[in-house]
Design a protein that fits this description.
Distance between the termini: 48 Å
Number of strands: 0
Order of helices and strands: HHH
Number of helices: 3
Shape: elongated
Helix content: 55-70%
Structural class: mainly alpha
């Protein structure tokens, strides 16, 4: 019985959060999370390098750096 309760505890937690926040907000959050994971254009390291280059270019007073890679992932 303990294993069954342990297996369903994540379901109870999600339902509790849904009741507290509201089902619409939870749905929109999960939808945004799914879209973000599906269309993420680069890895975290690439994004940090791109942001670092952008910050350095702006602090030196130059124009923003041009994008170095494709905007959409290659298929």
């Amino acid at each position: 019985m303990f294993l069954l309760r342990l297996a369903f505890s994540p379901v109870k937690i999600v339902l509790l959060i849904a009741r507290v926040l509201g089902y619409n907000r939870l749905f929109v959050f999960l939808l945004g999370l799914a879209v973000g994971l599906l269309v993420a254009p680069s890895t975290g390291a690439e994004m940090r390098a791109r942001l670092k280059a952008e910050v350095e270019a702006r602090t030196q007073g130059g124009a923003p750096a041009a994008p170095t890679g494709p905007i959409t992932p290659e298929v």
